[in-house]
Amino acid sequence: MSSSVTRKVVIDDTSSLIRYVGPWITVNGQNYDTQGNFGATFNNSLHGTTGVANFSFSFSGSQVYVSGTISINNSTGVPDPSWGCFMDSVASGTSPPFGYIENNWPLCQWDNLADGPHVLEVHVTSKGQTFWFDQINYTPSPNLIVNETALLVDHKDADIHLDSSWADLGGIANYTSQKGAQMQFSFVGTGLSWYGFKPTELPHGPTTASYVVDNQSAVTFTLPGLPKSDIPTQYNQKFFETLALPFGLHNITVTHGGDPSLTPLVLGTLVVMNGTTSKTLPAQISSPSKDNHVKHARNLGIIIGPVFAAVVISIIVSTAVIIHFRRRKAGKNDDTELSLPSASTGNFASPDNTRESHNVFLSESTPFMSTAGLQIESPSHTSSANLHHSNTITRTMRKQEEALAAFNLSPGSESGSSRKLLNYPHHTRLVEGLRVPHHISFRFIKVPIAVHIYLISPRFS
């Protein structure tokens, strides 16, 4: 039943793509919605003029159709208003005047243009009767991609899927009278409107139908039918319009709730809001499918993983810094125990070779850190306060002297190796059997962050 039919682009009279010249006004089209039997105005708006004016529109395509609300005054035998249709500056015929008020009336129409860029113009002359313009529909060039526009979808569109309960209605629509009959359609946009007929030849009793978008809750809408049997067929009737949807791919299923004794569900056209003429789905559009939810979950994992790792590392470093300064503060009341390097090699080896030393043995020429501000004081520079807080020396003086000898220091001497020893007071109990009193102390004036990172990894016994 369905066939490939090119979708048309719908340009409302309020579009900035239309160039108006002369005295034009914009009015609410709802004031004319009950006029005639061709349906309501598009988007509830009309442009009108009562003088000499014109408008133009540029497009690329092969067909174009201009419509409006016709209201002719022919009391003098000269129709007012009058208008002329021009394509690429060449005049063409206009539709014959109609003696009644009708919306969606064809004002100008071109069906067989050479595909490509064109400019249409409509020139209006009014002696007082308003000329009303509503919309432009055009068939775009095959390779032209138009985004964020209203699209007119014919009932024969290949993406409209009807079950076997549907039948043709005069070649201009499809209809069903069977309860439970369905239509399915997928579209890209932010909403959809359904337009159909109220045929006078079929039952008029009101009934209902429903639609479901993206497996959400069903929405019921009314099919009012015709109030009287002698009323002519009502064309271009909007049966429902979906709520605003997020831009993307959507699926809609419409189900008829009536039976053969009630008014049928008729499909004439669909209008997709903010749609696209692209044949492929843009990569940035999110589909409501399961695969996209999985993709989003993976992307979320990629983001959360590094963030979580950074938070954990920050917590570990912060905790280490806090412990470091607390132990340093507490270490002021304890003996300072040092693991001394070998005097001959300067290697960081403990006497029993079973524990790591976290002393930093620096040469005066160490490139990434200056040793300025780090001093090894001799007993002659030791303050009485430091001596007052020194604990009882638990090892023999011999071991102290051996330790000092490793640095060529003797009690009372200020000379020594050109190498300096940097050690934090809280690195306690690193080496069994070697304790140095506080008359060997250290002053920490400025320690670069690189050294802090290196030192904050003590092993405690």
List keywords for this structure.
461 residues, single chain, transmembrane, 25 strands, Jelly Rolls, 4 helices, transmembrane helix, membrane, alpha+beta, disordered C terminus, five-stranded antiparallel β-sheet
Description:
The chain folds into four domains: 8-144, Jelly Rolls, CATH 2.60.120.260; 154-285, Galactose-binding domain-like (Jelly Rolls), CATH 2.60.120.260; 289-333; 334-461, no CATH class. Helices cover 13% and strands 33% of the residues. The protein has four helices and 25 strands. Strands 1, 2, 5, 6, 7, 8, 9, 11, 12, 17, 20 and 23 form a twelve-stranded antiparallel beta sheet that branches. The protein has a five-stranded antiparallel beta sheet with strand order 13-16-21-18-19, with no helix packed on it. Strands 3-4-10 form a three-stranded antiparallel beta sheet, with no helix packed on it. Strand 18 and strand 19 form a beta hairpin. The protein is globular and about 110 Å long. Residues 284-303, 332-397 and 406-461 have low confidence and may be disordered.
CATH class of the largest domain: Mainly Beta
Compute the number of helices.
Answer: 4
**Total number of beta strands:** 25
Question: Which fold name is given in CATH as the topology of the largest domain?
Answer: Jelly Rolls
User: How helix-rich are the residues, as a percent range?
Assistant: 10-25%
Rg computed from alpha carbons, rounded to a whole number of angstroms: 44 Å
Please name the fourth-level CATH homologous superfamily of the largest domain.
Answer: Galactose-binding domain-like
What does the overall shape look like?
Answer: globular
> Can you summarize the main beta sheet?
12 strands, antiparallel
Structural class: alpha+beta
